[in-house]
Fold Exo-alpha-sialidase.
Amino acid sequence: MSETVLMVGTRKGLWIGRSDAEREEWRFTGPHVETDEVYSCLVDTREGRVRLLAGASSMWLGPRVTWSDDLGATWQAGPDGGVRFEERREAAVERVWQLVAGSAPGVVWAGTEPGAVWRSQDGGESFVLVDALWDHPHRERWGAGFGGQAFHTLLPHPEDPDSLVAAISTGGVYRTRDGGASWAPANEGLRAEFLPEGEQYPEFGQCVHKVARHPARPDRLYLQNHGGVYRSDDEGTRWTSIADGLPSDFGFPVVVHPHDPDTLFVFPLGGGDGRFPPQGRALVWRSRDAGETWTGHGQGLPAPFWVAVMRDAMCTDTHEHAGLYVGARNGTVFGSLDCGETWRPVVSDLPDVMVVRAAVLP
């Protein structure tokens, strides 16, 4: 019987949950990388092994990518944490916001704060800066935003190792088709609501919160913006709003069902300074028709619920009946085995949850 693993990164360490295919009972260990802030996780099951990677940040050691090949029993990190700017760049990595397996063997992509993208050829043990994006002429005009300037979304094309979609907070979506040698913005149709009237559809400068891609339909992307939910059917060349029917178009995560490119999930929040679910009611909103219509589901979620869910704190596993997971800033991770209709706690009383990642082990 297959095994399920769930990585939960928090502001004070990492927890690892394991369960069978039924996912009724979970066994958690942790904290791993104790006291570190963990903003990114990856379960890499390629090449006949299981490698867990975490983007950790220590007040003493600084940011680092650490990995385990024995499901968390031991951890390693490369020299200087594996992700470091050369001195000539006069910059320092503050956090590793994203870790994603590439479509070529051994390749792992990392996105950091300040806004940079990095490539590893050795499974995440060492990384090299993607110079063309760091040197892009737009970079000096990317704002920092309230959450900092970071490449928080990296979406390798599942069939083309030279194609990658990347999103940076307060910079927008960028795309490469030549392995990172050149990059172009892909923001047509995305609204920047915080800009003056008449200037709200710039070439770049949108505050993108998260982008999702389905592996079986890689040209389709879904995007949660700072005020807006969108779909693209041409890999970001043009975006169309799909926010009608949602209680709020503000939120952080967007997740696509692993087996159905028409099914997606969001967790709307109120905009402004509140940033909690509208009316304090926790609902995961689901669309089964690529965003044409929406329904909210919250059976089993607590009420009232004045807690946010961050951009990487919602994910799915890849079982035939896929599990959906939501991690909240109150330290609870909830799970659903019926496509988001009913929920129950998977683990509780952890520190502030920043990222959850699930995988089915071979």
Q: What stands out?
A: The chain has a mean pLDDT of 94.
